[in-house]
Amino acid sequence: MKRNYGLRWIFFLAGLVILALGITMTIKGQRLGISPWDVLHVGLFQQLGLTVGTWSIIMGSLILLVTCSLTKKLPRIGAILNMLLVGVFIDLFNWLLPEPSSLAGVIFIFVLGVVVMGYGVGIYVSADLGAGPRDTVMMMVVEKTGWGISRVRRGIELVVLAAGFGLGGPVGVGTLITAFFVGSIVHLSLPQSTILLQRLMDRENKNHEQQLASKKAL
Questions:
Q1: Which string of b and e fits 130-163 if b means at least 16 CB within 10 Å?
Q2: How many CA atoms does the CB half-sphere of 23 hold within 13 Å?
Q3: What does residue 70 show for φ and ψ, rounded to 5 degrees?
Q4: What is the DSSP string of 131-157?
Q5: Using DSSP, how many helices (H) and how many strands (E) does the chain show?
Q6: Whole-angstrom Cα Rg for the chain
Q7: Which long-range contacts (CB under 8 A, 24 or more apart) does 156-163 make?
């Protein structure tokens, strides 16, 4: 139903905004180190210029091309929007959010950012409108191997981390925290978000059926 489709798009777009916010929060706390993917993006930014968000889009585009070639399928519109919007929102939030002035502020914004990132992924993936390039790879490996989401995500991010470190991206204890805990948070947030979305869709369908029944009674 169109109502259900609208709810799915709300979850999808809200999840992307939340994900980008979480990423930016961890970047603001980069004195602790940042997530493996952002180590790569920041490393590219430091070496070649542009912006962190722009490099997120560029790398997402490359990953999407590789994934499409392996699966022999065209990307879903959601995957393309993810690739573009997350990078745009990263740069927007990076401009809007202030820099923490104390170590306590750095720790707080970083830890909160890790949690926000994990829930952002769970929310937008639950809409089933197309995972982003990085999460598409993650879900493809999960499907092929049967391994858990957290295990697969950690493995991919450790490989990316090595590449980002080679480019001089900021690595620290926070990098390890994101590598090992974001996947675990997604493991919780994805089923939670899926259940919530299904309940909202069921409620919308029930209300629609009641409205139709009322019209027929008249």
A1: bbbbbbbbbbebbeeeeeebbebbbbbbeebbee
A2: 28
A3: -80, -40
A4: --HHHHHHHHHHHHH---HHHHHHHHH
A5: 8, 0
A6: 19
A7: 157/35, 157/36, 157/37, 157/182, 157/183, 158/36, 160/36, 160/37, 160/39, 160/40, 161/36, 161/39, 161/40, 163/40, 163/43
Contact between residue 114 and residue 4 where contact means Cβ atoms under 8 Å apart: no
The token pair at 99 is 């820099």
Per DSSP, the three-state class of 74 is coil
Q: Where are the domains of the chain?
A: 2-206
Burial 28-46 (b: 16+ CB within 10 A, else e): bbbebbbbbbbbbbbbbbe
Both tokens of 97, joined, read: 């959010």
Which residues have a Cβ under 8 Å from the Cβ of 170 and sit 6 or more positions away? 30, 33, 34, 39, 42
The type of residue at 4 is N
**Chain length of the chain:** 218
The 8-class DSSP code of residue 100 comes to P
pLDDT tens, N- to C-terminus, the chain (218 residues): 455 778 888 889 999 999 999 999 988 887 787 878 888 888 888 888 888 899 989 988 888 887 777 777 777 787 888 888 999 999 999 889 888 888 888 889 999 999 999 999 889 888 888 767 776 777 777 777 777 776 777 778 788 888 888 888 888 888 888 877 887 888 888 989 888 888 888 887 776 666 666 666 55
